[in-house]
């Protein structure tokens, strides 16, 4: 029963993140990637911290966890965003999407090295889903011209490794803290790190003149991609483990293609349909014998998505 809930929650995150490829693009017509994300996390962090205060009480995290919290924010919110934007700018969309979609493999390897068990069906599903992702992305046709394909491909590989490491690095935080609390603080740290690199004129003067599509893009990124998406994703990492959660990353390019077709920006192809079928089959197979949880979260004392509190909130 719990696993069914986890499957639906993680599938919904994949759908939201898939839609964000198109919706975020609307905002990037007016803002550069760093500035867009600085605004996004600066807006999301206070909302998340207020939500922690309302649901759990004081949003305290013991000092002993702050180094890992800072590492998590630095890897998943700052470094990944910069590597991703470099990849998209320097290489083709096709190559960057395929290379970044390798992140679940990095997660499986790093999870094993960190001592987290990874079930065989998850590894098999990752291989099948990767084949489906390649078909979905190649089915979109040729990408844009690449000013520096080799450097862009390297940036995409770095982004893939960073996103793959993100849940493994964050997982220990979730043993003692709720996903909501962890998301709130990593967003706050990410905002603090991104703001100095953001375009000051855009932050100081352009906020009142944003177009409706840019405003919609920012609102979707704050509420859907960050507040809901990251909290639910962390919850999935704690509930079923890093590796099994990351398999759902393979569904993101499929969701992106579906949303692009629905919004009228692209047309579906036979390769995309075949690829989507492979991904869905892989996700179904990854749930095989899933009552054996990857991360042992049946014993972590948390039973609900909105669990009120954290074990060591008052420790120093």
TrEMBL record:
Q: Which family does it belong to?
A: Belongs to the EamA transporter family.
**Main subcellular location:** membrane
Which domain of life does the protein's organism represent? Bacteria
Q: Which InterPro entries does the record associate with it?
A: AA-Vitamin_Transporters, EamA_dom, EmrE-like
Q: Where in the cell is it found?
A: Membrane
Full protein name: DMT family transporter
| Membrane-protein topology | Multi-pass membrane protein
Start and end residues of each EamA domain: 11-137, 151-283
Q: Which residues are listed as membrane-spanning? A: 34-57, 69-90, 96-115, 122-142, 182-204, 216-236, 243-262
| Source organism of this protein record | Nocardia niwae
Transmembrane in keyword set: yes
**UniProt keyword annotations, A-Z:** Membrane, Transmembrane, Transmembrane helix
The cross-references to Pfam families, in alphabetical order and at most eight, read: EamA
């Amino acid at each position: 029963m719990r696993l069914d809930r986890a499957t639906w929650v993680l599938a919904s995150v994949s759908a939201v993140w898939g839609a964000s490829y198109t919706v975020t693009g609307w905002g990037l017509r007016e803002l550069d990637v760093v500035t867009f994300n600085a605004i996004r996390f600066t807006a999301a962090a206070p909302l998340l911290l207020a939500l922690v205060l309302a649901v759990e009480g004081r949003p305290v995290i013991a000092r002993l966890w702050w180094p890992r919290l800072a590492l998590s924010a630095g890897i998943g919110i700052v470094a990944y965003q910069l590597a991703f934007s470099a990849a998209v700018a320097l290489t083709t969309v096709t190559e960057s999407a395929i290379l970044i979609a390798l992140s679940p493999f990095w997660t499986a390897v790093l999870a094993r090295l960190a001592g987290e068990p990874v079930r065989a069906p998850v590894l098999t599903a990752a291989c099948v889903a990767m084949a489906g992702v390649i078909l979905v992305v190649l089915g979109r046709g040729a990408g844009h011209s690449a000013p520096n394909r080799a450097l862009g491909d390297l940036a995409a590989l770095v982004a893939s490794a960073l996103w793959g490491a993100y849940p493994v690095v964050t997982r220990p935080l979730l043993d003692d803290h709720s996903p909501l609390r962890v998301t709130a603080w990593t967003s706050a740290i990410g905002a603090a790190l991104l703001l100095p690199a953001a375009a000051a004129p855009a932050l100081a003067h352009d906020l009142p003149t944003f177009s409706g599509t840019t405003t919609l893009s920012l609102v979707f990124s704050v509420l859907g991609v960050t507040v809901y998406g990251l909290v639910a994703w962390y919850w999935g990492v704690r509930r079923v483990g890093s590796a099994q959660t990351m398999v759902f990353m393979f569904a993101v390019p499929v969701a992106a293609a579906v949303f692009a077709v629905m919004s009228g920006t692209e047309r579906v192809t036979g390769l995309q349909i075949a690829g989507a079928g492979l991904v869905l089959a892989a996700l179904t197979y990854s749930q095989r014998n899933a009552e054996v949880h990857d991360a042992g979260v049946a014993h972590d004392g948390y039973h609900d998505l909105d669990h009120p509190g954290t074990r060591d909130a008052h420790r120093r």
